[in-house]
């Protein structure tokens, strides 16, 4: 789990497909008004790109992107 690595959603790019919400096994996201929102950023795994890799619009970037990180072992693709 990370305090410095977490997803940031570009609301102008997000189309509300919820691919990120459906992919994340760490309860990082919730859905409000049909759109994903980051509600538990501490649940994100350092270096995990699972949700960002699925985003069809490239609406997800990560705080802490350029720090050294550990690969996620949960099978989420991070």
TrEMBL record:
Pfam families: Fer4_9 (PF13187). Residues 5-34, 35-65 form the 4Fe-4S ferredoxin-type domain. The keyword Phosphoprotein does not apply. The keyword Iron applies. Keywords: 4Fe-4S, Iron, Iron-sulfur, Metal-binding. PANTHER family: ADENYLYLSULFATE REDUCTASE, BETA SUBUNIT, FERREDOXIN III. This is Ferredoxin-2. It comes from Bacteroides clarus YIT 12056. The lineage of its organism: Bacteria, Pseudomonadati, Bacteroidota, Bacteroidia, Bacteroidales.
């Amino acid at each position: 789990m990370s305090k410095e690595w977490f997803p940031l959603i570009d609301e102008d790019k997000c189309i509300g497909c919820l691919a990120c919400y459906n992919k994340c096994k760490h309860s990082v996201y919730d859905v409000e008004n049909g759109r994903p929102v980051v509600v538990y950023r501490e649940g994100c795994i350092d270096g995990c790109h699972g949700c960002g890799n699925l985003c069809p619009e490239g609406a997800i970037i990560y705080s802490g992107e350029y720090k050294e990180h550990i690969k996620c072992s949960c099978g989420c693709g991070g």
